[in-house]
Amino acid sequence: MSNSNLFLFFWTRTRRSFCTNITNKPPPPFDFTKTPISRLPTVIILGRPNVGKSALFNRLIRRREALVYNTPDDHVTRDIREGVAKLGHLRFRVLDSAGLEAEATSGSILHRTASFTANVLATSHSLLFLTDARAGLHPLDQEVGKWLRRNAPQIKPILVMNKSESLFDADDSLASAANEMSRLGFGDPIAISAETGLGMHDLFLSLKPVLEDYMVSLFNDESAREDSCSDETSSPEADESKLPLQLAIVGRPNVGKSTLLNTLLQEDRVLVGPEAGLTRDAIRTQFEFQGRTIYLVDTAGWLQRTKLEKGASSLSIMQSRKSLLRAHIIALVLDADEIVNAKRSMKHAEVVIARRAVEEGRGLVVIVNKMDLLRGKDKSSSYEQIMEVVQKEIQTVIPQVTGIPVLFISALEGRGRTTVLHQVIDTYEKWCTRLSTARLNRWLQKVMSRHSWKDQAAQPKIKYFTQVKARPPTFVAFVRGKARLSDTDIRFLTKSLKDDFDLGGIPIRIMQRAIAKKDGSGTTKSFHSVGRVAERIKSDKRERGDLVESKA
Question: Which Pfam families does the annotation name (predicted)?
Fold first, then answer.
């Protein structure tokens, strides 16, 4: 085949749309979209460092979640990131892994990531062996091939040649690169470009028989157990009543966030170690606890972003901030040993996190980790003192939210797991609270009678009080007359709501609005007035830039 014909062949095949191909064929035997995520097949992306594994992961899940940065001398990805891939009618769980290096020294980060990847590989159903078409066959590619034969002999890899977009224009470059990669012994490679989307149809055709065979076996197994399990299945209405919970674990570097995530999941899901800043990607995972779905996010250590901060570290800082904005509940992790040594509960970065969570209307749970380091006769006084001081200092730092829960745990020993999960769910349920208008107005009549007004004549007349939204609970007081609720009145109503309806520990927003008046001609003259609290709430919608605060 001539060079021009070869180019035309690859170009027409890769530019062919999924819709044209699939509509000319019988419908797929399985509807992957109706399969629960936990039952979908798992595909892991493996390869040496810097071949575009994270870029392919982002292409498959159709979002830019994994950090992508060209660092030949460093490794951006260190943990296993999971997502749901969409490729034609196929749906599957895709795992992004760290780059493999066979010559990593024992105990190093690279050696630990390789061991971690091997454990995850044992539960995968298929794997994509990714190589770099521009660099050609690299010695590390051959080492990865040997590693795969040794650690996953039961899985047949699909050899994928990434960064192939520039080879379509060169004479015989694509064919020669494919011949060179075939020396790895895993068949002919699939030429793709994760950056441009080139070759995704060929990847679809390679994955289709493997994933459909898995679904056939899964369907047969479930059909065999259908009769015995039909009476025990729960109703779909009961499952739909429990909305998924988004929980983000945030804090400064090396306070035990990743260890806490592994403890909550009861498995080694992310890499842990004594090195500060070990986590770079914000790792999102899903698990079930007492019938409730929880999406758990482990973030990189929170640091103040500077103008000199560049590269993967800068991207990690930005990703941690985005994770905080997406979460429902924020778990702020503190280091008990550092609190004793510094003689203060929260440093500047932790104060920024707590205030940002409250300003964005998120539920906040403070977790004091590493309490196991304070055990012993010589540290018994510190153990008791820290449990008394932390709560008071948090209330001083965030006076606008009372009753923020503080938990004392040891993630390394697994102590406090159920306590953390129960407290997170309790805070989430408060955060989602909805109160009827009738109940609120009955409450308002009682609570207004016990409030001491400075001037009874100028007392604001609240016609009625209603909740306009939840997550967080937001209320509107419709005020009649010229008098408006002062900041003191708003604080009184907020405290009464928290005390009477058990809403402590979450932010509550109260706005006021003037009701319509009638002028002398009998026509209705309406005007709206929003009090100071509403103006303060509006200011919470800040620009998504860096949070600048003076150092404490």
Answer: KH_dom-like, MMR_HSR1
